Amino acid sequence: MDNPKLDIKRFLDDSGKITQLSSKKKFRFATLSYLADKFEVNRNYTEKEINAICDEWHTFDDYFLMRRELVDNGLLCRVRDGSRYWKPKKD
User: Can you give the residue ranges of the DUF2087 domain (predicted)?
Assistant: First the structure.
């Protein structure tokens, strides 16, 4: 059984920013979930706001990757044209 609270400390710096994404799916997803926790449920975000939050919480200057990974993993949703993003409610 997968542990939902995997230890991702090795992927974070001392200030809690993500320093890398693991190539192992379970650690990658856990790290992305940590980033997704920085977003509020029941709030709409612009792409610019998503980029700013992603940029604030990682060190390798690739908010495009972070945004895409959040969406691809179902941790954020977006309308087709990218004009609105939101964090889905957990079941």
Answer: 18-86
